[in-house]
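Regression check, heme C case 88:
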Amino acid sequence: MPAGEPPVDAARAAWAAAGVDRATLERGRLTYLRDCGRCHSPVALSTRDTAGWEGILPEMYAKAYLSREESEDLAAYVLTASRAAQRR
Ligand code: HEC
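Current build output:
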């Protein structure tokens, strides 16, 4: 499994704590795989902590032309999955 694309199940431990539902994470992951690897390889989620991702994501939503809803789903996936990745 490439480090940058943890399956949604890898984030399971973080879901309940974050109160994010599974469907949101599934949508966010698909957006990440589809749109965040177009210009560069998808960046491994473990490379940044929450603050690091929050800092870069807004710039990348714009680059990927994501809608507001896509951006919110993506953020839910990236932030919960990166937290899970850092716990490993
Ligand atoms: C239109 C091209 C494009 C798209 C689409 C894009 N990026 Fe980027 N990304 C870049 C460029 C160019 C850089 C490096 C310069 C910069 O930071 O603006 C970068 C840098 C990054 C970095 C920092 C890399 C590092 O090693 O420090 C991260 C993290 C990142 N992108 C995540 C994302 C995510 C998440 C998405 C999906 C929402 C995304 N990118 C979509 C062009 C893109």
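Comparison notes: The chain has one domain: 10-87. The chain is about 60% helix and 0% strand. No diff flagged against the previous build.
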